[in-house]
Amino acid sequence: MSTPQVRPSRYENVLRKHGHSTHGFSESLADAAVRARSTVTCDGNHEMHLRDVTAGVIAPVLVSFVFWTLHRAREQGINRLYFLSRDGQILHHIATRLAAETPAMHCDTRYLYVSRQSLGRACLSAGAVDDDWIWSDTSASTGEQMLERIGTSLSDASVLLSDAEIRAFKHQPVTDAVKQTIKKRILPALSNHSGQSGTPHGGFALDYLRQEGVGQDAPTGLVDVGWKGSIHAMINHIAETNALRDDPLWGGFFGLVPSDHGFASCREAFFFDVTRGDGEDPLRPGSSIYGLMEAFCAADHGTVIGYRCDADGRVVPVLEPTWGRRMEAWGLDVVTATVDTFIDAFTFDGEFGRVYQALRTPLAEIITRFWRDPTVEEANAFGQFPRELGQGDEIHSEPFAMSYRWRDVLAFAKHGREADKARGHHYTWHEGSMAITSPLVQHAIRAVLRSGRTVKRCAEVFSRRWDTASRIR
Q: 170 in helix, strand or coil?
């Protein structure tokens, strides 16, 4: 297949530079990126730049991860892989294509509709699993949304609550009193009820796992992006408690960080595993790769709220209804088409076992270049991705990148790099936001960040005097 004569992108140059150390694998990625970038048709600048980011960064990273997953499955005699929703949707799509086109990597690949919320009730009823997953990322949640996360609702829990407590569950952020109410009164009540069947939001999880054959008939693995392995642990715990299988299911991840969820010994990661001191998050310190990879793996459907039985008696997922429209508006179809074209052009006949550790270096470099130093066009296109903040059925999101205004300069003077959180923007892509900000405001923000503590002290004094003056008036 001839490669179109187009000017190489900075990401393709990086991949080619490391061609020798990766035994040609990264060069094959670069060739596929050129093909995808030069042949996928787009409607307007937004789609064009989204395509180019996908060809140069998203597709090389995801195809490499999936290639490793299939390679490790083959080495361990695993012939069935479940890709966990929602991050696993595009990974499953890639795996199905690669396994079909590379006979040596053939594997039964399946997509499993699961979430912490949909498995929560069954897991709680099974008992003895760590509940740290319940309390993570609550800064943008209400108590009502936390109840949805564990597979129940404020309406169902209201019999345990006073009117004042019900009102407190609607406030954001979640208070310590609400967390204690959930921990000491609501979780024990849920644990006393079976998670095998019931309401759409709380039940049928075990029935669904059995229906999909999880852990049955074949050596099986679970694949997810990361990071603490909570869903991997939940599925293993449910399977173990309900005798779906005797030994734990293997878990393949892009990256892993320490957790107390259990089953860590049967998890391994492609890119970094902080627990084992293997590799590192290329975006640390500062931001993290977590939100970026979740955006790279965007799905066309909302989170799995729970399960229900359809007219034929099959257990089907109940999905949050608005996410698909958001992804369509952002341009997910362009991302998928570019990934497909990339796979069409990608070929590698070498031994991957000699490659994947060396491959981390060029992948880390393209990820870092994109995240730390985006072009204005990249920041405009990718920055429109709607990063989710809420939990459960009530989804709140904000764009990854939002241009700063003059009023934000004071926030940076007062809070430093924590200014985004202080402004209520919990997951802002700072470098992307800076790229689409006017040059004068950019210079002012950089100046106050360089000035550091002195400017911060002055800003605090100014804020106190402003508040005093406002009260006097």
A: coil
Tell me the H-state helices in 163-317.
Answer: 163-168, 176-181, 187-191, 205-211, 230-241, 289-296
Q: Which residues of 330-363 are buried (b: 16+ CB within 10 A; e: fewer)?
A: bbbebbbbbbebbbebbebeeebeebbeebbebb
HSE-up of 283 (CA within 13 Å, CB side)?
A: 20
- Entry pTM: 0.86
What angle, rounded to 10 degrees, do the helices at 332-345 and 59-75 form?
60
Nearest Cα residue to 382 out of 298, 273, 467, 280: 298
User: pLDDT, tens digit, for every residue of 340-387?
Assistant: 999 999 999 888 888 888 999 999 999 999 999 999 999 999 999 998
Q: How far apart are CA 428 and CA 409, in angstroms?
A: 16
At residue 283, φ and ψ (nearest 5 deg) are -100, -5
**Which DSSP symbol is given to 307?**
E
Q: What is the four-CA torsion angle of 117, 123, 124, 129, rounded to 10 degrees?
A: -110
Residue 360 in 3-state DSSP? helix
Tokens 């491959």 belong to residue: 359
- Which amino acid is present at 473? R
- For residues 113 and 207, what is the distance between their CA atoms, to the nearest angstrom? 13
385-440 pLDDT, tens digit each: 998 765 554 456 789 999 999 999 989 988 888 888 887 777 789 999 999 999 99
Q: How do the domains of the chain map onto residue ranges?
A: 10-116+204-377, 405-472
Per-residue pLDDT at 377: 97
Question: What value does the mean pLDDT of the chain take?
Answer: 86
Q: Are 378 and 65 in contact (CB under 8 A)?
A: no
Q: Which residue has the tokens 């890119």?
A: 271
Dihedral sign computed on CA atoms, order 186, 188, 189, 190: positive
Cis before 37? omega within 30: no
Maximum distance among all Cα pairs of the chain, rounded to whole angstroms: 78
Asked if residues 412 and 445 have their Cβ atoms less than 8 Å apart, the reply is yes
Helices (H), 127-254: 132-135, 143-149, 154-157, 163-168, 176-181, 187-191, 205-211, 230-241
